[in-house]
Specification:
There is one protein chain. The chain has 180 residues and is mainly alpha-helical. It has 9 helices and no strands. Helix 2 runs parallel beside helix 8. The model has no long low-confidence stretch (mean pLDDT 80).
């Protein structure tokens, strides 16, 4: 029953639009908030690094859409596990046990009705709203993780450049990444 109720709440197109808008807003504001926080604390170099996250945001939209396309056809998010799916699998096993243990027509009828309801509540028609939200979440999680990687790369590049300036290129050569 819980799965059907949740999917009914999510079936509104307004829920889908709110999810996409909320994820897009959070992804777009993250670099700005990081940059503003660093600038207010006097870390202007860090503030500049945070803005490098915007480049990754725009360059990974295609990858995010690819992840969303894969995610919408799966029962669980690509980016993390799902407690709801595990609960549904356990419920299916419990219903099968009820069917096997049913004695008499009324118990068999009740177990079969539970099985029918469980199949209906987990059908693609009923679960599409949740899958749409799942796909949108996976898309934006992918984009934000790439933005974080870009920020970390900017931090490491600045630290390496500072070590070259401080120690001289000849003393830093062992720290230069190679293709091997």
């Amino acid at each position: 029953i819980n799965t059907a109720v949740i999917n009914a709440w999510l079936s509104s197109p307004l829920s889908q639009v709110r999810n996409i808008a909320g994820n897009a807003f959070v992804a777009a504001m993250r670099p700005l908030y990081m940059s503003a926080g660093m600038a207010l604390s006097g870390d202007f170099k860090g503030a500049g690094r945070a803005f490098s996250m915007y480049d990754s945001m725009f360059s990974t939209i295609g990858e995010g859409l690819s992840v969303a396309r894969k995610s919408i056809s799966r029962d669980a998010p690509i980016t993390e596990g799902s407690k709801l799916i595990d609960y549904g699998v356990n419920t299916g096993k419990e219903i099968d046990s009820l069917k096997a243990a049913a004695k008499g027509n009324s118990e068999r009828y009740a177990a079969n009705m539970l099985g029918w309801y469980h199949s209906w509540a987990n059908s693609p028609f009923v679960t599409w709203p949740g899958k749409g939200l799942q796909a949108g979440d996976d898309m934006f999680k992918t984009m934000v993780s790439r933005m974080d990687m870009r920020y970390q790369a900017a931090v490491e590049a600045d630290e390496w450049a500072a070590s070259v300036a401080r120690d001289g290129a000849e003393n830093v050569r062992g720290r230069v990444p190679t293709k091997d």
